[in-house]
């Protein structure tokens, strides 16, 4: 039954997308590109922030690094 409900949900989404594409016409491609671009820039920014955080943490833990918390 769960599979059937998923199928119905996806069919409703597909019909909604087709109706929106028919209404929007040529402008629909611009909205799609805007959504994909916005999603990508958010994901790339989050990945960059995570990488920077990991690099700073690694630099703090390295022996003899500037800003290291080791007592000498």
Oligomerization: single chain
In terms of DSSP E residues, the strand content is under 5%
Number of helices: 2
General form: elongated
- What number of structural domains do the residues give? 1
Number of strands: 0
In helices, the fraction of residues equals: over 70%
- Radius of gyration, taken over Cα atoms and rounded to an integer in Å: 24 Å
Q: What is the arithmetic mean of pLDDT? A: 86
Q: Give the H and E element order.
A: HH
* Main beta-sheet strand count, sense and barrel state: none
Helix-and-strand structural type: mainly alpha
Low-confidence stretches: none
Distance between the termini: 66 Å
Observed structural traits:
72 residues, mainly alpha
């Amino acid at each position: 039954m769960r599979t059937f409900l998923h199928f119905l949900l996806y069919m409703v989404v597909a019909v909604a997308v087709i109706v929106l594409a028919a209404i929007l016409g040529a402008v629909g491609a611009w909205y799609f590109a805007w959504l994909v671009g916005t999603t990508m820039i958010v994901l790339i920014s989050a990945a960059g922030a995570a990488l920077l955080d990991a690099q700073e943490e690694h630099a703090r833990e390295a022996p003899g690094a500037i800003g290291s918390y080791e007592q000498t």
